[in-house]
């Protein structure tokens, strides 16, 4: 068994031991176990075993740091790596405590698997939800340390889905790793993409299996690439039985994505739309508003009528009314935060679809 196989086997056995006894092996016991696994290197049938995938019922947790790209661009590499390592150490300890298996680290994101047990239906879901809440609590604690050390705060979005996957070893004699693949893994990744900073989103299937264990918000329907029908997700708010709540760091009503989108607006005066149409640019867009760069002065709380071209969905959203809720001077530019006050249902649906397509593509970036 190659070194990578030994590490994978050791991790899986530790998960089983922790599930049965409440804690993993450590110290001399862990070293002895690793030594035993190392003695079976080159055992017959290894290649066949590597090709032997099996179906498993699992709950998948995807966690991703929000805004981390901006931090890497403004801080020294050593500081960035120290922050990332500190975060991953904290999160790994929480994951192991809830008997989750870390499938992989991917840049600034973590993929965790909670394996189901036919003798205890729903146990993997409950462990995943409790883990997600504790991860967000852990991020809050981590940010307190960052504030005291004068480091930037980190925010995490989490998505959870439950389903059936193919599980087994992928790779060759040079390198291989135990992993899971399947449509439900992809769905967990898509759901994570919609989560806001400090938020946990769960799929309809996960919600169905958690029963009265978790407190979740109202269902939201989102567009997911590769699916003809919208997918229903809910926000995990807390776990009453454990007296734990998700400590949202920031309350937003929707995701936002960065764009460079031309639009036009007209000012309202005494509820009358003025005839002059002014062209400007949208810098980011969400379900309920935009951040816009405009050529002239506009007073706070002014009312505007907007026309926005949405090229990805082939639609021009007209008759949108908005209010200036903030002004943001930046590098000599005039930036306005606009909140929609009146949007026709069809236009509202197209704006949401446009944002969701950007989230899952390469034309925009989550914030």
Explain how this protein is built:
This protein is of the alpha+beta class. Helices cover 34% and strands 36% of the residues. It has helices at residues 3-21, 27-38, 46-50, 68-74, 77-97, 123-148, 183-194, 204-210, 345-359; strands spanning 54-66, 101-106, 109-115, 155-171, 176-181, 200-203, 215-216, 220-222, 231-239, 244-245, 256-269, 272-273, 278-286, 289-293, 303-310, 315-330, 333-342. The strands form 2 sheets. Strands 1, 2, 3, 4, 5, 6, 7, 8, 9 and 10 form a 10-stranded mixed beta sheet that branches. A 6-stranded antiparallel β-barrel has the order 11-13-14-17-16-15. A hairpin with a 2-residue loop joins strand 2 (101-106) and strand 3 (109-115). Helix 1 (3-21) packs across helix 2 (27-38). The radius of gyration is 24 Å and the shape is elongated. The relative contact order is 0.10. Residues 39-50 and 362-367 have low confidence and may be disordered.
CATH architecture of the largest domain: 2-Layer Sandwich
Q: What are the low-pLDDT stretches, counting only 5+ consecutive residues below 50?
A: 39-50, 362-367
| Largest sheet descriptor | 10 strands, mixed
Give the tally of structural domains: 2
Mean pLDDT: 84
Fraction in helix = 25-40%
Q: What structural class results from the helix and strand content?
A: alpha+beta
Write the SSE topology.
Elements: H1 3-21, H2 27-38, H3 46-50, E1 54-66, H4 68-74, H5 77-97, E2 101-106, E3 109-115, H6 123-148, E4 155-171, E5 176-181, H7 183-194, E6 200-203, H8 204-210, E7 215-216, E8 220-222, E9 231-239, E10 244-245, E11 256-269, E12 272-273, E13 278-286, E14 289-293, E15 303-310, E16 315-330, E17 333-342, H9 345-359
Parallel strand pairs: 4-6
Antiparallel strand pairs: 1-3, 1-4, 2-3, 4-5, 6-9, 7-9, 8-9, 9-10, 11-12, 11-13, 11-15, 13-14, 14-17, 15-16, 16-17
Helix pairs in contact: 1-2, 5-6
């Amino acid at each position: 068994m190659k070194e990578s196989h030994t590490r994978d086997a050791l991790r899986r056995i530790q998960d089983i031991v922790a599930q049965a006894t409440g804690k993993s092996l450590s110290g001399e016991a862990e070293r002895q176990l690793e030594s035993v696994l190392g003695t079976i290197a080159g055992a017959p049938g290894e290649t066949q075993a590597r090709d032997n995938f099996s179906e498993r019922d699992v709950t998948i947790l995807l966690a991703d740091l929000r805004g981390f790209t901006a931090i890497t661009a403004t801080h020294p590499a050593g500081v960035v790596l120290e922050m990332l390592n500190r975060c991953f150490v904290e999160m790994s300890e929480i994951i192991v405590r809830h008997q989750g298996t870390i499938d992989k680290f991917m840049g600034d994101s973590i993929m965790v698997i909670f394996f189901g047990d036919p003798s205890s239906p729903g146990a993997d879901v409950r462990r995943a939800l409790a883990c997600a809440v504790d991860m967000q609590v852990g991020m809050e604690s981590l940010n307190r340390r960052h504030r005291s050390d004068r480091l930037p705060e980190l925010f995490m979005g989490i998505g959870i889905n439950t389903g059936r996957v193919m599980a087994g070893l992928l790779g060759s004699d040079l390198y291989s790793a135990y992993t899971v693949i399947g449509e439900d893994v992809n769905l967990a990744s898509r759901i994570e993409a919609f989560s806001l900073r400090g938020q946990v989103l769960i799929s309809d299937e996960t919600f169905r299996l958690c029963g009265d264990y978790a407190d979740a918000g109202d269902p939201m329907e989102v567009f997911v690439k590769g699916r003809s029908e919208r997918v229903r997700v809910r926000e995990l708010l807390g776990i009453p039985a454990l007296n734990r709540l998700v400590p949202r760091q920031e309350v937003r009503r929707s995701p936002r994505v960065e764009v460079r989108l031309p639009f036009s607006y007209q000012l309202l005066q005494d509820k009358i739309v003025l005839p002059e149409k002014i062209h400007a640019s949208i810098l980011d867009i969400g379900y309920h508003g935009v951040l816009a760069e405009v050529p002239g002065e506009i007073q706070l709380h002014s009312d505007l009528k907007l026309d926005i071209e949405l090229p990805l969905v082939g639609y021009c959203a007209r008759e949108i009314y908005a209010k200036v809720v903030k002004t943001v001077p930046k590098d000599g530019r005039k930036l306005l935060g606009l909140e929609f006050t009146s949007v026709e249902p069809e236009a509202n649906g197209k704006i949401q679809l446009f944002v969701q397509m950007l989230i899952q593509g390469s034309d925009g970036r989550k914030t």
